Amino acid sequence: MNKTKDQKIREFAETLIDYSIEVKEGENIYLKAESIDVKPLFDEVRKLIIERGAYPHEHFIYDSQIGRSGLDYDWIKHGSEEQMKNISEAKRKELEEMDAFVMISGRDNERELNGLDPEKITLRKKETQELSDIIHEDRWVLTRYPTDASAQNAGIPTQEYKKFLLDAVTEVDWTEITERNQKIKACFDQADKVRIVSKGTDLEFSLENRDGISSIGKHNIPDGEVFYAPVKESVEGKVSFTYPGVKSGNQVEDVVLEFENGKVVESSASKNEEYLKAQLNTDEGARYLGEFGIGTNMQIDRFMNDLGLDEKIGGTVHLALGNAYEESVPDNEEKNNSAIHWDIVKDLRKKEDGGKIFCDGEKVFEDGEWLI
């Protein structure tokens, strides 16, 4: 039986509440949405939180201290440096009282920050990092809801985009993704040297003593990836990315990075190169890789110009400049720290750039197919 849109939205909300953060009676749940366009999912999630006997703490459209909600046009255009650096103690106390967080993205204009001062954007993100850290200490999930703007950004009709995104949540077999991730993780956990060879790319790095993280819908929806933090100073070579790097509404195209001793020493882009270089100059850690990720969700099979979807495409890899996640670095090593964490996607499927992945010299992946 074909599911109605309302049924899919209900299942979407149930996935967030019952699977991702597992809401319990009596808990305080921080519920944040970025625009009026995401209201159908926001309302369903709110209702479910109440049905489960918990307490929703609603933040609708504006939430100036947290993530992209505090990076709108007016804030960045007119805010002073003093305002950029301000951290609300009231917001900090509220976050510390929460048991779990649900954050729903989906703007009415995905590029409203285009052309604004990248240094102000970077400053705001850097100063509010400590609040984001509070969220990531607890149960949290970040998702997106289909909007006209995101469909336009993907270059397809809104109806088609909505079906694609809702199916990427409600038609996914989480057991299947979990099993696929376990096989990939077992392969890379045993590897020391990883090498990626593709169009414009020959990159090598170490995963020595690394234990991969299998991402199966507990923090991101849609989901499906296995990720690592490369040994900080081990990254050598060059990578040319297939798809644009998109951050804070800025689209940077044809990104090419060259690494020596783990650090980006050369960078270029055909569009918004100034923004790329501003991000690389955020702090010392911004020029190092905080993540190597492998997309494993076969339901997500095409580029949508939305990182939360694109980094999950089965047959792709992504590399993140900047901050490494605490859980992906051994306890006896200091992780790479940065105010940014910027993922950019490289497509290794045959229909795109194609490519191979080697673990300790053995080919384990070619043109979108796993050989393990």
How would you describe this protein?
The chain is α+β, with helices and mostly antiparallel strands. It has two domains: 5-170, Thermophilic metalloprotease-like (3-Layer(aba) Sandwich); 174-370, no CATH class. The chain is 31% helix and 27% strand. It has twelve helices and 20 strands. The protein has helices at 5-20, 39-51, 73-78, 81-85, 89-97, 118-127, 129-136, 148-154, 158-170, 174-189, 273-280, 307-310; strands spanning 28-33, 55-60, 100-105, 139-144, 193-198, 201-206, 213-215, 220-221, 225-228, 236-240, 245-247, 250-252, 256-260, 263-268, 289-295, 316-322, 341-347, 355-359, 362-366, 369-370. The chain has an eight-stranded antiparallel beta sheet, covered by helices on one side. Helix 1 crosses helix 9 (158-170). The longest helix has 16 residues, at 5-20. It is globular. The two termini are 36 Å apart. The mean pLDDT is 92.
Which structural traits does this protein have?
372 residues, Thermophilic metalloprotease-like, eight-stranded antiparallel beta sheet
Outline the fold blueprint.
Blueprint: H1 5-20, E1 28-33, H2 39-51, E2 55-60, H3 73-78, H4 81-85, H5 89-97, E3 100-105, H6 118-127, H7 129-136, E4 139-144, H8 148-154, H9 158-170, H10 174-189, E5 193-198, E6 201-206, E7 213-215, E8 220-221, E9 225-228, E10 236-240, E11 245-247, E12 250-252, E13 256-260, E14 263-268, H11 273-280, E15 289-295, H12 307-310, E16 316-322, E17 341-347, E18 355-359, E19 362-366, E20 369-370
Parallel strand pairs: 1-2, 1-3, 3-4, 4-8
Antiparallel strand pairs: 5-6, 5-18, 6-10, 7-9, 9-15, 10-13, 11-12, 13-14, 15-16, 16-17, 18-19, 19-20
Helix pairs in contact: 1-2, 1-9, 8-9
